[in-house]
Every structure is written in structure tokens, then in C-alpha cells.
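Summary for the lay section of the report: proteins are chains of building blocks that fold into shapes. Here we show the chain for Late embryogenesis abundant protein LEA-2 subgroup domain-containing protein and then a coded description of the shape we predicted for it.
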Amino acid sequence: MKLTRLVGMALCVALLAGCASGPVRRVSEPSARIQQLTVRADGSWSTDLRIENFSSIAMRFDRIDLALTVAGQDAGRLSAQPALSIGKESADVVTVTLAPNAAAKLAVADALAAGRGVDYTLKGTVAATPDNTRQRSFKIDRNSALSPAPGLPGVLR
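The coded shape description reads as follows.
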């Protein structure tokens, strides 16, 4: 009887000790991708950049500096200082305007005219501050593709 009580009390103490540590605070590498690219009337591009926070805590995204390559052509840099807070395991969108290089502009115009998609690459860094601690820099290296959006001329998604 005493042994059963002793084992029961030990289990209760172990369970309570396990609760004392609190939730796990995990900082994971964020991700960035182009959600939408719109060719504007003046030839510039409006890019909706989707920033994804995979961490278990909120992060404030302070700086974005990404080299964009479209259809194998250097398009330019997507640079912004959004000061955007994104909650844990969540995402948000930042719109960045870009005056693309001529070769990339022609590659996107050709793809839109032909109704086909284009591959793109984002390489660079995103600076973020996890939950009011020190700022960290995260490397981004993403390869993906964009396709024409039906019914939306000049838009790739």
C-alpha cells in the first residue's frame, strides 16, 4: 500500500515538473517567395513577396534584400525595410516595386504573350528579430515558377 502511494506521488511530482518548463521557443529559418508579379504600365514590376515565419514565436521582419532572376535573366534586387511583425507559424505579404533589367523584362513579356510560365530564383538575406531579442540574418535561396493568372493581363502567380 505504501509503495503504491509512493509511486503515485512520484508520478505527480514528475508531471508537475514537466509543466514548469513552459512552451518551447523554437526559431526556424523563414521563407520568401513571390506570390504575385504584376507588370505595370510604366514597365516596372510590382511583386507581392510572401514572407513565411515557421518559428514557434512571433518575429519582426526588418530588412529584405533578395536578388531576383527570372527565366535565367538577372532582373534586379528586391529590397525593402518592412518592419512587419508576423505571428508564430504564420505568413504575410510585402509589396516591393522593381525596375527590372531589360533582358528579364523581355523574358516576362514573352512568357505573358505566349501564355506560359517562367522560372525564378530568389537569393539573398532576410533580417528578422525573434520576439524582441537580437536581430538575426537568414539566408534565402529559392527556386520556383510563376504562371499567367487567367483573366488578369500582365499578372503572374
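Put simply, here is one thing we learned. The beta strands are 31-39, 45-53, 59-70, 73-80, 84-86, 90-98, 118-130, 136-146, 155-156.
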